[in-house]
Amino acid sequence: MDQLLAMRIFCAIVDAKSFTAAADVLGMSHSSVSRQLKQTESALCVQLLNRTTRRFALTSAGERYHRHCLDILSRVDAMTNAMSGEREHLQGALRVSVPLAIGTLELADWLPAFQSQYPDVSLTLSCSDQFVDLVAERFDVALRISSAPLADSSLMAKLLTSSDTVLVASPGYLAQRGLPSAPADLANHRLLAPLRAGQPNEWTLTDVADATQRVTLTGTFTSDAIPALFSATLAGLGIAAFTERTVRTELARGTLVRVLPQYRAGTHHYYALYPRTRHVNPRARAFIDFMATHYRQR
């Protein structure tokens, strides 16, 4: 058994939270991914996942194995990068398109480290939540956040991470309006809504038992820009939904507070997209690998 491949497949399953999504990212069939996991469990003589018809959860052994896999794969990737002179001495232009959340709210988390690691790469960053034509607009890489599987295209896609969407509000707002204890309580609150054409103006909240409840967004503020919703939430205008990764720093600082923490408002997947060519631009490959490592470590 190829142990490195087995570890990468296992990490892909955990990151994607789905056998099907992991298979898509790896370019494998669902049956191959499932068979590889069974072989890994058989070789280790432990059960790594508890499976149900709809979801799976890591066992305690699975959690330990996952931590070891991340550590080993990170070391292997670092060694590979260190052995590649081309990657150690990258230089030249790199054009990247990123969503507003990554290009603004998450920028300080990753850009300084990337520029420190690749000081001779000239990075041009375009921030937009609109899907761009990478080839026509001459982008090397696009990062995108999606709540649904990406549509078939001529682009290659690498799943970087997944993040639950959570409800948050400022302490000041909650002090004035009270902390909701159930989804029905949201009817008495200001709900800050994203403005997205063709999508329902509602949240679908899922609890730990996978039961769902729909909440219609009837707030007094909407915006098509995530940073605007973020600023409005910090300013105490109401309750909003963001990926946990987007608000992780604010939750740790206490400037935002989880609302209905037993519920999640869906899951969003972070992808790197790049043109389907035989030889990927080494600067693009370095950026994709850097972001994948960044999200694994956070």
Automatic annotation (TrEMBL):
Segments forming domain HTH lysR-type: 1-59
CDD domains hit by this protein: PBP2_CrgA_like
Keywords of this entry: DNA-binding, Transcription, Transcription regulation
Name of the protein: LysR family transcriptional regulator
Top-level taxon in the UniProt lineage: Bacteria
Pfam family for this entry, one: HTH_1
Gene3D superfamilies: 3.40.190.290, Winged helix-like DNA-binding domain superfamily/Winged helix DNA-binding domain (1.10.10.10)
Gene Ontology molecular function: DNA binding; DNA-binding transcription factor activity
Family: Belongs to the LysR transcriptional regulatory family.
Organism (species): Pandoraea pneumonica
